[in-house]
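User: Sequence in, structure out. Go.
Assistant: Echoing your sequence, followed by the structure tokens.
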Amino acid sequence: RHRGAMEGTDTTGVWDDFGQKVDLTARLREILANYPEGTSILKELVQNADDAGATVVKFCIDLRTHGASSVSCEKLKQFQGASLLVFNDSVFTESDFVSISQIGDSLKKTQVGKTGRFGVGFNAVYHLTDLPSFVSGRDVVFFDPHCSFLPNVSAQNPGKKIDFVTNDVLGKHPDQFVPFIAFGCDMVTEFKGTLFRFPLRTETQAKTSKLSHASYDGGSITVLLNKFAQEKTLDLLFLKNVTRVEILHWHEGTAVPSFVASSAITNPGPTLSVARGAFARASAVHASVGADATIDPPQSSNFEVCFFSQGNGGGVGGSDGDTTRQFAVSQALGTSLQPLVTQGRERFGMRLVPWAAVAAELPGANLTEDSDSLQKPPSPTGRAFCFLPLPVKTGLPVHVNGFFELSSNRRDVWHGGDMSGGGAARSEWNEALLREVVSPAYAQLLVTLSGAVRDKKLPIASFYNLFPRDESGCVKPWDLVVVNTCALLLDVAVLHSRVNGGAWLSPRRAVFPDFEVDRDPGLKTSLVEEGVSIPDAPHWVLGVLLKHTTNGAFRPEYTSPCGTRRVLRNSLTKCEVGAKKRPRQRVLTLLKYCLSDIADDDPESVASLADVPLVPLADGTCALFEVGDKRKKEIYVATSEELRLLLGDARDLCVDVFRGDHAELTQEQGVNSSLHADGADDSPQLTRELTTRFESLADSGFTNLKRIDATALARMLLPKILPPVWKSADAEIETGAVRIARSVAWRPLIFAEDTACRSGYGKTSDEGHPSVHTMVFLWKRLTELSPDTLDPFVGWPLFPVLNCDGFHDLKKETYPELRLAPVGSAIVAPTELTGFRSCLSFECVAALGEAGIHAMLVANARDDEDGEGFGTKKMNVSSSVHDELTRAALAHASTKNKTFTASGAGVTDALASASQARRSNGANAPIPFSRQASAALRAFLLQRRWFGARARLGGFSDAGEPVRVATIKALVIFETYPETIRSCSDEFNESRGQLPGPLTALDGISSLHLPPDECDHNLLCSLFLKAHDEEQAFVLQNYLGVLKMSASVFLKQRVLARLDQLPPAVRDNAMLAALERLGSLSAADPDLLVLLSQTQFVPTASGQLVTPTSLYDPRVPELLELLDASRDFVFPDPDSAFSSEHTLNTLSRLGMRSGVTRLAVLDAARHAELLSINGEFESAKKQGLAVLRYLETSDGAKLASASRKEKQKSNSSSSFFSLFGEKKDTKAKKGVDDAKTELGIELNAKELGHESFIEQLSDIAWVPVTQVAPESEPGLPWFDDFGEEVSSSSDCLPIPTAVAKDDSVDVDSQKNATLLPPVASPKTSRPPGDQWLCSSSVRVLLEDPRSSVLFSAFGWRSEITPETLCKQLAALGRKHKTVTDASIGRSLAAAVPRIYAALTASINTDAFAKAVDDVFGAEETNAAQAADATEADVTKQGGEGTIPATETNEK
């Protein structure tokens, strides 16, 4: 049946459906296997958006969980969780819908300007989800390759597309479509963009998924997006439309997503848009016209694009932060590849476009250049692109983009020679694209960037870093770019050179450095400065260019010594010969290079140096090498020493030389530095190697270089070194006047601080003065040429001497002026005998200069060992060249015959010679030395080592010989002390004791002494010599016959004899010193003790000076209590050193009082009176009470008692101590008394007798009295109530009621002027019990004395005089004319009868009659009337104490 059926024409029911089928999930699994997970998923979405014309792409991880109650299908609920949202601002076209629905057969393969060519890019999203969906325009699309989640789907139609604008999908299934409401989409109106939603595959879904078992959550997607963020800038680099990429994060519960990162073009505009869209236009034109296609417009082939990245991955290398990155891009359309384009399309169906671009990242704010980048390039970071970056590092420093043939997974480009067919065609295409399109674009990029370097927009190092590296560092097939780019650059000016101020060279025009030049930057610079076109490109750039540009037609030019010599000859002009044109550094660098191939002993080789202007002269200029018959100017090759000698007018004839190893330490390129003789700044010097070469050339005799010999030295030595005016006149030499010739000022530069000066040339100064090194060499030559005599050089200043006038500042940092003394003049110098140890100080040199004597000074470190010779001004510079010059001069055998020895005897002889010379010239006066000179000569001459056996043992002549001693004593150099004190009224300044005194000679006219040890210099005068140290004092005493005054004689003559003339400070210090040494002084002069005890020299607090015998010991408490208010007058000043324990003991030995005697009591009483007179009432009262209290004691009573006539001993006040609660130090007191006895001072001086003591004490106003009337006695009359004067009777003393107003009286005294004095004499005072009988004319004691002895002694119990009684009665009458107060009346009733009773007792005496006449006189009647009235008033008062009427009548 079947066979028959087949033979018929009707096939119905015969043909069964059968054939190959594609399982969609299996196909997708295959794609996913070849298209690995990672950021390439997201990049495919970016490329699709770019092909669709989008400008913005946003990736958002949506972590929200949406509702599931109103989804359209139960199985869709599982996709309402976390998802990845991808937005772009383009809208799908119908062709886009068709392309996205096809797998591996995208329509973009045939569309011009599209970069997607495989139709598999979108399907990479199945790594993330099983149900992708998107909304664009008015449609929403869901893909369900499993055909198990959407309703009514099949293998033929595994998805759904819905017009959401026409169908109210949001209203019907809101939960299903709410997730799409974002980025401007509302699922109601047409959406002007595209939004993809990829629900993340959960772990549950992954278990049953036929696509992938990989699950994703928010964390894994975040990691993926962070990786993408690190590459987002490069993703935009070669795209056509997209200008911004954003990454967002939408958290649960938030209305809008939050920002994570972004990258955007910051220089958008029409120009950039045209440049980025060039590929689309070029591919369209190429498709239509083929090889005739061009980029339109042409200028768009080169452009710059800038990006600004923020957030995660925004920094360089993917670090977080904000970054701006800038790229220069060069793109090209390779029309020469048209045959391959046609072949690929016709044979293999490949849609090929010969398009490529190269991009270089430019340095910006976030990129820093390595300072060594020219020598060590950074590692290349170039990536391969097929509009999006591929995971391929090319080994190039630039990024390469091209329309490459890629593997279907976009992981690599096709390459290799082991393929055939389509694979071989694809590999051939890629290699041709690299050779014919990428390489020209790369070359054009370098040309463009060289312009940026010219405009100073790009650093040169960054520019060279963009050159290709050696192809060995590039993986295939990218090494083709290195080879072809270098070949294209052969005639392109991409190499910079500093020649002629800067130029751009092509490799063909450049001169490439040889090995020596390449390793020596200084040599390379020097050649460039000479006009050699050496590029400044790093060696690795030149190396790769040379490797790939050298061929049969091109041979590069290299540097060489021969070529350099040729360049130098060609550069010569007539005006340049010998001129100082080239810097010395360049000359020496080129010289070393030019001599590197010369054989010094080969005349033909040396002949190649002819006319090369590289002979470095000592004056800083250059001369020509002259060879053979052309030699016209001889140039001398000297040693460094000889060159220093010839640095005068001969510098232009001498080759510069190596001047020391120390300079070579700072040089690495064969050049050293020091100062040239012409004052040029640090100019390099020749190395030892170059100096040796010049010496070798001079010895060969083939050039104009010659050595210096003795003949040449002798011919030009002195005229070249010393100024001619320095030489003494011939007449001075002939007459011998040269012996007193002055030295010449010598100011060499050797004392400059510049170390190079000291060890270098020893340059001649601006004044033409020779250096020290020159003079040292000269002395060496003199020793060699004229070893036996210096006579031929008499008059030439050759001896180094110092002029130290005015050099006395110890802090002065400069050296004293150097001078040169003529041969034949008087010079003091060290000799071999002194061993350079007896050197003169600067001050001593200056002193000798005042005498017309020159001195050489040698500084040696050994001088510090013994501290002799220099004093405070040693020139401690052992390596000093001045020292070297002096040694060189002393090394000459004839020097000792022309100088004096630097010793005491030698200097003395020189001074004697100078004095004799002065006298011979008519100057008879002594040499007028200055004070500083005198001090220096004393310090030098007055040393014991110059005298006697010491000098002889030291090998010196004896300065103590009579003739030399007479010479020294005749010098007016000895300092005396100034008369610092003329009178005690002079203002004293302690520093005056340090003032200099007059200078004198020891000529015997005045009697001069040395002062005693440790005396105050303020006490000295011009009769005393000042010895500044023990050494000088020893010499003055033992060799020059000066005596020292003894301390006791000095005390008598200079202190005690003129105490009143000395200022207090000087006087006190002198006397304290005398008391300190009293034992030794009294031993030397026993009479001194008595003299001191009777001399007023002890100061009290009042400022007065008193004798020791007038003082009281402040250590005795009884005396302190008794004399407390008078302490300023009777004790040593407590604030002075006279109150020290030791001084008080010494004063006690000199008679200071240590006990209470009648004299002490009288002194205390007198001080109370004095204080009262001066208005010091409180002190007076206190002092009076102290006297009263003491007299109230038993010891005081003994003094006041008539039975005690012996001298009161000082320990008799025990009861006084018990009264005040104190203890006596009887042991200490006894020690003081014993000391006095030992020194022979009489203790029991004649004491006052009792009568004299009481008489004097009664007349002194010391006893405390009441100053105002007592309030308890209101009616008591007071003696000044009526302003009347009292008589001068024994009871009545005129008491001042006011103190004279004077500026010297203090405020308290002025206040006390209105009060009565607080003290009175015992004669003019009465006890309080008698106040009603005498208060009007007699002072009332403050209190009743406690001792009956005092009542008796001062007559306080005797009858009151009639005169006092009369005055009291008269005062009562005047005060109480009427009595109204009962208490006053009672007081009067008691007092008046007592007065009458006392008067009655003397009524018949003359005193009574006189008193009545004196007091009442003509007013007796009025007094009687007043008395009657008083009696009547008193009677009227009545009561107890009333005066009877009969008594009143009698009165």
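User: And one key feature?
Assistant: The first strand starts at residue 56 and ends at 62.
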